[in-house]
Amino acid sequence: MKRLLLILTILFSTFSFSQDAIILSQENANEKGITPIWPKCDRSRLEPANCFDQKLRNHIIQNFEYPDAALNDGLSGTVTVEFIINNKGKVEVLEVTGAHRYLQREAIRIIRAIPKMQPGKWGNKPIAVAYTVPITFRKPQ
After folding, report:
1. Which of 6, 27, 66, 77 is positioned for an S-S bond with 99, CB 3.0–4.6 A?
2. What DSSP state is assigned to residue 41?
3. How many CA atoms lie within 13 A of 73 on its CB side?
4. Number of domains in the chain
5. Domain that holds residue 94
6. pLDDT band at 32 (very low <50, low <70, confident <90, very high)
7. Span 55-68, mean pLDDT?
């Protein structure tokens, strides 16, 4: 019976780690050179990882809107958004933490507005790459 359980455990653990579900962190993807490619970064002089970081920063700044409800209530703080660029190049928000829910909603909206891109690749196989981004909301003066 113990052997049967051991064999089943080994079988199930290999299935749960199959390559279809590979998700690399941003750091690992950058080291291995398989980061997703933001639109027009393939024509940039920057390395794809640096171009991605720059475009993401610009995207957040350009799409940032302080929520009216948060302004009225005097809310501020930092929201951390964990998301992936999936194997089809689309954004999927995984987790949002910090600050008030009004600020969290705005952070989610900004991240979901990221354009579709070329996914990261492991060899020729597209994979998901995970990112964590802090977005700080400071009350306008």
Report:
1. 77
2. G
3. 13
4. 1
5. 20-137
6. low
7. 93
